[in-house]
């Protein structure tokens, strides 16, 4: 059950976009910061969401040419406990709440992020208005957006969920397939206008992450208006992600782009992504 602490401050509408504060995945890429690992800032239907704030999220959000103001966040969401997805969650909770002096916002995370193997420190939990435990088949309301977690991922022993963000009324939906081994049920679970896939490996490995071949299967099955690959390991980085995306686009018959650190993607697809 959510825990109520205090009322949120009024929210200001913002441009609808996804800002990629980091596109690196896998431990070596993150440890060496070959690519940044700050997660994604999603501004959708007047609601500001921060997804998977890995190491460097705060720095990346504040060193952009157009700085992001964490106090405008409505919620922070973790797909799972691994540090490349959660390393800055406590820092960003403090930033969202003015160091805890102005409690606000919501936190969404799998139960083990809060209980059995907690990555969210207990003292910062009092800084947010509500805490929700993500579950398979869950539906949650944040401002004018519904967030669903349709299926538990196969990602080792880490409790992991992707997310589908659906704005109330008109507007594009965003499906985010977080870290997982490929399995066919993913395609039915993640129908969205924009599909974001964490693609760590270039070729298939016996490991709980998607490879390029897996991404192609999912893009073909889901047929989004746009697919975005991100969260790259070294094999994809060496292969040049933009070239990998071009090959996926040719094979899938669907527009595919590779995310770049700092990239801003217009959710209505009315302009090209900008760095």
From TrEMBL:
Record-given protein name: Metallo-beta-lactamase domain-containing protein
SMART domains: Lactamase_B (SM00849)
Superkingdom, natural source: Bacteria
First and last residue of the signal peptide: none
Residue ranges of domain Metallo-beta-lactamase in the record: 37-231
One family name in Pfam for this protein: Lactamase_B_2
InterPro entries the UniProt entry points to: Metallo-B-lactamas, RibonucZ/Hydroxyglut_hydro
């Amino acid at each position: 059950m959510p825990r109520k602490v205090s009322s949120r401050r009024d929210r200001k509408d913002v441009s609808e976009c996804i800002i990629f504060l980091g596109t690196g995945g896998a431990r070596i890429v993150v440890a060496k910061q070959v690519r940044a690992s700050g997660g994604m800032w999603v501004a959708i239907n007047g609601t500001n969401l921060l997804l998977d704030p890995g190491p460097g999220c705060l720095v990346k959000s504040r060193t952009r040419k157009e700085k992001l103001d964490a106090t405008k966040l409505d919620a922070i969401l973790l797909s799972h406990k691994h540090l490349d997805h959660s390393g800055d969650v406590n820092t960003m909770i403090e930033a969202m709440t003015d160091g805890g002096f102005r409690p606000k916002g919501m936190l969404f995370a799998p139960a083990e992020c809060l209980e059995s193997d907690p990555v969210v420190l207990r003292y910062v939990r009092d800084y947010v208005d509500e805490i929700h435990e993500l579950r398979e088949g869950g539906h949650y309301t944040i401002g004018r957006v519904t967030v669903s977690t349709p299926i538990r991922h196969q990602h080792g022993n880490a409790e992991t969920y992707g997310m589908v963000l659906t704005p109330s009324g008109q507007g594009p939906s965003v499906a985010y397939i977080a870290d997982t081994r490929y399995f066919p049920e993913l395609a039915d679970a993640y129908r969205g206008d924009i599909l974001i896939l964490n693609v760590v490996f270039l070729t298939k490995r016996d490991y709980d992450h998607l490879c390029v071949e897996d991404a192609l299967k999912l893009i073909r099955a889901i047929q989004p208006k746009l697919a975005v690959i991100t969260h790259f390991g070294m094999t994809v980085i060496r292969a040049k992600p933009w070239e990998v995306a071009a090959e996926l686009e040719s094979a899938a018959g669907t527009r595919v782009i590779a995310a770049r650190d700092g990239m801003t993607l217009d959710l209505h697809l009315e302009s090209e992504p900008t760095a």
